[in-house]
Fold these 4 entries.
Entry 1:
Amino acid sequence: MTPVEPVAMAVGPRFTALPPLSLYVHIPWCVRKCPYCDFNSHEARGDVPQQEYVGALLADLEMALPRIWGRKVHTIFIGGGTPSLFDAPAIDALLSGIRARVPVVPDAEVTLEANPGTFERQRFAGFYAAGVNRLSLGIQSFAPHQLEALGRIHDADEARRAAESALMIFGNVNLDLMYALPRQTPDDALSDVAAAIGFGAPHLSFYQLTLEPNTLFHRNPPPVPDDDAAADIEDAVHGALANAGYVRYETSAFARAGRQSRHNVNYWRFGDYLGIGAGAHSKISFADRVERELRWKQPAQYLREVAAGAPVQEQSRVAREDIGFEFMLNALRLTDGVPSSLFAERTGYPLAIAARGIAEATRRGLLDADPAWLRPTPLGRRFLTDLQALFLPATRATPKTRITVHAAP
Ligand SMILES: C[S@@+](CC[C@H](N)C(=O)[O-])C[C@H]1O[C@@H](n2cnc3c(N)ncnc32)[C@H](O)[C@@H]1O
Ligand code: SF4
């Protein structure tokens, strides 16, 4: 019998079917940079070059086509930055251009992120007519003094009007809020929760405010609650949301039955995504490898590089020793976790490569002992970063992939 080539056995993942594919589109401008925000967003000085940018996005997509050939796009997420800075004809041109270039499934979820400071009824209606069927609105808080402390460009009335119109036009709406805000008490946070619930949006996101490096708040920190006070606020927020029938299906995401974000769930289940636009990240699987890409971050440079035919700044292959951690980084954010079989399906490697981490996490009470599921325990959810870190390769103490609270790449 001829022995199997040892090299062929040792290298690379093996996929029988590729993961579902999502498309992320990054719009990198905002009216003003918020002091807590470390997203790739840049203050728009004067008019943003909408037409030129949409042209560049479509050229970027066209150059990426050979890498996703024959694959259907299941969800589209237009994020930022502030995509609602663009007018409806620009979003229409973008979505029509995407549909002309890649097969988008007929019932695809198409989300657009909006800031209440850019709200006009007509514009929202135009987004809907262009094919956006889910709106994600950055509210942050309904308390006027908090909106001011957060440097937001909108007041509480604008936030309310934008939420009302979004619900009327789209129905399928997410409201983003943050807690553990400067000097916030549990009662203050509960007022925000009550206001958010009052709109009846099917999806709410509650993020703990984090002081990210390279932000104004990091250099000049506001008086945010300490860890214990923040944990009390979090308990109050989560309790009130549960009482109102919102299920916490991910670290920061709460939804009514069947109204989870399909796009974000695809990230968390270690699906594939092509990210186009300035600074967008991609993860694309092939029969024998998984690759990551990062596009040029600065809008002006991105536009130049697209014109020169080279939008991708970095491309790398995900190594065997990293992929277990990367999978767990996403999957363990889901409250119900994932079936154990998904590991091999989405990484191309047997679950045995994560056995050491699984055993240790189970021993510490961070992961359920059920062999059929990878599910964090309540303790594992509270200490999620510690749980995820157990899957880091033994050779690396600190993660190469940053652990972030947000899923949108
Ligand atoms: C990329 S932003 C898009 C929304 C839109 N640009 C806006 O702010 O209205 C997505 C969400 O991330 C959250 N976020 C941003 N920076 C954060 C931070 N430092 N800590 C916690 N949440 C943050 C906010 O809730 C924000 O709405
Ligand atoms: S939080 Fe939203 S509006 Fe503020 S700078 Fe970041 S992306 Fe722009």
Entry 2:
Amino acid sequence: MEVHVPEGTSIMRAAMEVGTKIPKLCATDMLEAFGSCRLCLVEIQGRAGTPASCTTPVAPGMVVHTQTERLKALRRGVMELYISDHPLDCLTCAANGNCELQTEAGNVGLRDVRYGYAGANHLADKKDESNPYFSYDPAKCIVCNRCIRACEEVQGTFALTIDGRGFGSRVSAGQMEPFLESECVSCGACVQACPTATLIEKSVIDIGQAEHSAVTTCGYCGVGCSFKAEMRGEELVRMVPYKDGKANHGHSCVKGRFAWGYATHRDRILNPMIRAKVSDPWREVSWDEAFAYSASEFKRIQAKYGKNSVGAITSSRCTNEETYLIQKLVRAGFGNNNVDTCARVCHSPTGYGLKTAFGTSAGTQDFDSVDEADVVMIVGANPTDAHPVFASRMKKRLREGAKLIILDPRRIDLVRMPHVEADYHLPLQPGTNVAVLTALAHVIVTEGLVNEAFVRDRCDWAEFQEWAEFVSEARNSPEEVEKVSGVAADSIREAARMYATGGNAAIYYGLGVTEHSQGSTTVLAIANLALATGNLGRKGVGVNPLRGQNNVQGACDMGSFPHELAGYRHISDDNARAIYENLWGVTLEKEPGLRIPNMLDAAVEGTFKGIYIEGEDILQSDPDTHHVAAGLAAMECVIVQDLFLNETANYAHIFLPGSTFLEKDGTFTNAERRIGRVRKVMSPKNGYADWEITVKLAQAMGVPMNYTHPSEIMDEIAATTPTFAGVSFAKLDELGSVQWPCNEKAPEGTPVMHIGVFASGKGKFVLTDYVPTDERTGARFPLLLTTGRILSHYNVGAQTRRTANVAWHEEDRLEIHPHDAEQRGVRDGDWVKLASRAGETTLRALVTGRVAPGVVYTTFHHPSTQANVVTTDFSDWATNCPEYKVTAVQISRSNGPTDWQERYREQAEQSRRIAETVEAAE
Ligand code: SF4
Ligand code: SF4
Ligand code: SF4
Ligand code: FES
């Protein structure tokens, strides 16, 4: 058989192309060839010996024999050696039927083991069960190195090594530590790579091998990884990262891979409940009664207080279809535009800033683009914790030699970690992003580093000149900015030169950019840098917001902001409104509705009385908890639709149990505008998928909604939204996923935007005056608090706290610099009071040099901490995105948790004890 393949292709790969399988154990298509197992030997005509086909490249005219008697004998011999030191427990092994060693033993025709099993072996080696999700049984290890290479090449953590030599070789996590105590971040890449049951998911051991599967999209972060959900009956066995997934290419992190146990957690509420007053006990009711009561309450409120007295909040955890339905319910049913989304509190400045600069409210690149970046600039993002799978991709590029600039008050892992070190870390004071980014622009302009050809071609030259004049002012020089930001002027100058002259330069940013009073200005300052240097419109460059939740992009795309219809068309746009008015048979309000903070203000003032909240725990996730609580308490009907009785539900009158992403069909749109399918793999445990609940609620309110499947909702979105015109479930099934815009001009989607021309025609330079936040430190509150996420937890932790991920992060800790700690007599592990002008909470201190003097940091994953008790009501000037990242605080030693915190701890302890008792009984 003849085969034509590109130069450099291995014999093994070439053989695969023509359907010839060569036995193998150490090779996999996810990893570089290694050539250690000696099972893939071949004979090459005219050459001596039997080279490994996985490491030998093809040559023109090469004649290869893959199956000869000599090869068969050699392979059987190799296999005999492996099996002579392997437990013969196939029938009881969890990998039985899905084990490459077993399969290849069959393929090479192994019938006997001449060496017997009595010699020296590893059969009694001790298992490591420390990781909550997978076990390591060295007795089954064939030392193929796949796990080690996966940890290095795919994940980039370098947690594994081979300890010992020759016969004594064994895989070791860290310095022969248990996995849980090592550097391992539990991404699962090694488990995925292992060809035996040495590294295997505990869920497979418990439940057994899967019988059927469906490809779906992770419900956690904005990377949007594809997974094969492997099922046994109605039970999820494991989530296997999908190799053809275009966002993750077969990789995963601990959350998507393992932290799905919350879906069947006993805390889930499965029946609707109502109560007349929040002080009453909940009463379980039928779905019909819950829908009828909800409808009658909202109608009563509107009749009494007017049609603008009610609204809804959608969540970035909802599917696109669910979000679209909720905004439709509000606009067509409630008759107002009082709909907002939790994206308000994270990436609304991205929408505003990127639309202003480029004409589209979205990131410019696909993730693959980073493979061609020469300089990576990360601003206010912590990808290894918050976007881990993309971080692994980025780390790979950095190991290949791309340069790295980090703007962050905190020394995030990427500043220095195995095989990655930032060229420049600019540890700016929280709240000074705009000053530092404008200073970078100052250097680029004043040192003649502008890409003039690009600017003349793609932007308005006069506008550029005005901007160039502004950034050149002395007040924007690195030397002046050093005084406010604390960043050395030299570092700013050198980083600017690197960004402007280092080749393809890509900016990735996160909530450290947006969650500021100047969040929108910061996004504009980032866009200015990319415009001035021509780093837009091709692979390897761009401006890329790293979205927090799985469907932040989609929530924004689907018209759930009070001023925008789907596809970012302003509600005052008569043509856009007419499309929906004709389709829905209603007249739409042309004035924008209330944003979340306005709804809460109006509630406190007595004019806003009813709210429908799907999938969002605003009491925990929104700033100034006391104000949120006051707003909710002032309402007459709060409907919460969620998986668990969250903190907001304490103020609810109606609780509608929600469904997990495993129980419904739909789509999520990730940070690269990629629309991916969410597929139902089990029946909704609460009876209805979330989209069905909204449909039934709408019907009870007399709003016609007659969808029978989410694909019909997507059809309506496509029919009414130009950027989604080419999207359908059929196309997603065919292509796997597509990136919008997807329409007649781009039927298969748009990986890189703004090639040749911006969506808005010309790229727009905007002047970015630095205005210090009103949140100032002083004698009472001398430190600045900034917040963030940790890898193992997700936002307010409602899901991840109900999984074994608590093994990594049982509580939120306050990071404080040793100098600040010493001044206050605080030692590592001490309880400290964290107080701001908004409120106070108590947590334990972690004394660390990761934060600069004057800055403290915490996560917000645990309700017993409620970091947002201390955050203030300051917000972005353009979008009201809260200023989570800058709060003036004081730290002092404390005797322990406050009373309300103790109550949470007791509740958590009680549910843990109940869980243990039930588990023991089971
Ligand atoms: S789980 Fe991931 S980080 Fe941990 S050892 Fe395996 S590959 Fe490395
Ligand atoms: S643990 Fe698995 S992947 Fe790693 S060397 Fe052993 S058999 Fe190979
Ligand atoms: S990186 Fe994000 S999308 Fe991917 S598995 Fe982890 S949480 Fe899920
Ligand atoms: S697969 Fe080629 S040497 Fe292992």
Entry 3:
Amino acid sequence: MRLYSFFRSSAAFRVRIALNLKGVDYETVAVDLPGGAHRAAEFLAVNPQATVPTLDDDGTILWQSLAIIEYLDTRFPSPRLIPLEPVSRARVQALAQLVACEIHPLNNLRVLSYLRRELKLDEAAVAKWYSHWVAEAFGPLEQLVGRWSGGRYCYGDSLTIADVCLLPQMYNARRFSCDLAPYPTLVRIAAGLDAEPAFARAAPNLQPDAR
Ligand SMILES: N[C@@H](CCC(=O)N[C@@H](CS)C(=O)NCC(=O)O)C(=O)O
């Protein structure tokens, strides 16, 4: 498999974690997002949405991190990241989507670039925007995880797609100096995840294109 990735992309970070958890070998194809490589014709021919992660599984091209993770979970069921039991499945996906569908779309590169270039916001205003949307989702996430976590992971006693989404968002929140004091449960769970090899190996600073 080949994973089109950018070291700082939190969506690609999710897929790197899932591939590591499943023990799937893959080759990284670095896409320089700040340099605009994702908008070049060569990459648009692979993924017209111009986003990473994009997975090439022997010529089958897939994108959207949650869809890729579900694909991997079906192809390589162990360890299962999306539970089969209906209630757990819905709840775990709700936690994952709170990060991937509520925070990330408002805070990704093209949105922040629009704020800077078109709306002429300075870095302090961009950081305020970023922190606002993190807080909007981390507040309810802290409560839900507090209710549902068995202690070590976001939901019950098993690692799930919710954990796979949490750690990359935590990295990004730190990068933008968000106040994490109101989220002690999320901080504690993320610290534990960070120490697990599949998560640690997926970290931005260990990727071949890290700089
Ligand atoms: N919902 C998509 C989001 C993908 C996405 O926006 N990825 C970012 C990097 S984290 C990207 O490629 N950004 C390019 C841009 O914003 O121009 C997913 O989960 O894969």
Entry 4:
Amino acid sequence: MSAYPTAANKHRTTRLLNIKTESPTVKTFTFKDKQCAKAKPGQFLMLWIPGIDEIPLSILDADKNGTVSVAVKKVGEATKALHELKAGETIGVRGPFGNSFTVKKGKILMVGGGTGLAPLLFLAKKLALEKAKIFMVMGAKTREELLFKEVFEKICGKENLVATTEDGSYGVKGLATTPLERILAKEKLDIIYTCGPEKMMRKVFDLAETRGIAVEASLERLMRCAIGLCGSCVIGKYRVCRDGPVFTVNQLREVKGEFGVSKRDFDGKLIPLG
Ligand SMILES: Cc1cc2nc3c(=O)[nH]c(=O)nc-3n(C[C@H](O)[C@H](O)[C@H](O)COP(=O)(O)OP(=O)(O)OC[C@H]3O[C@@H](n4cnc5c(N)ncnc54)[C@H](O)[C@@H]3O)c2cc1C
Ligand code: FES
């Protein structure tokens, strides 16, 4: 028995409609796919680069007209091959997979880094429709790698966005977690959403725990099947592809020993997080 509706897990081919360079290492790819166009913020898809590999990617945007976007950082063989594709070329898609962020009203803080900003942008667009008040902390290594800053500024308001860069080329020098204590001391928040490097998310979780604030974090693990069968993506008792990728504060507490600490490699061995 399949864990997912056949329609989501069925492999489809489609063509790249548009490719946009977002930073020296990140490009946004847009294509048509009816199934993934129904996705909710936080869900992911499996994108097949013909002849190379199939990789998990968060959905950056999904439109009723059937258009879907993903933002991809060039890190290895598959993402490099994807970056070399041109509009009109064929890719494969499965999904959408996994759960999604809960869309809450009220006072919200988002903390994102790198391509972790992609699902948060999708979420921010939905939260804005609910008239939520959104504070945003976004981090990157350098100014050029601060993804979607202008769009976030439009949604949250410039005064509610803090950018951090590790080299100090823009905003606050340091990590995305640097301005957090100040914000947490000042604002009474209803929930924090976070996505990005796992050590950053662990720090967000620890800070929120001491103040009793709800957190939802979107985790990454190695993924192959994406439907809960192969076990590549386990963390504690959970399979990230099916039980996540979005985890609540209670679930994060259950996997505290691994969250921000270790992950499984391609052989299933626990290795320290880089
Ligand atoms: C739920 C989820 C959402 C993701 N969303 C995004 C996104 O929006 N944008 C983005 O740029 N990246 C995203 N990633 C990471 C992306 O899947 C990897 O960067 C990609 O698979 C690397 O493939 P590669 O062949 O280029 O690199 P490789 O050289 O094969 O690997 C580089 C590193 O990427 C990771 N990786 C490799 N294969 C996989 C795999 N099958 N599953 C998970 N991680 C892998 C490993 O940490 C590895 O060390 C996401 C991963 C997950 C699990
Ligand atoms: S990727 Fe196979 S169980 Fe999650």
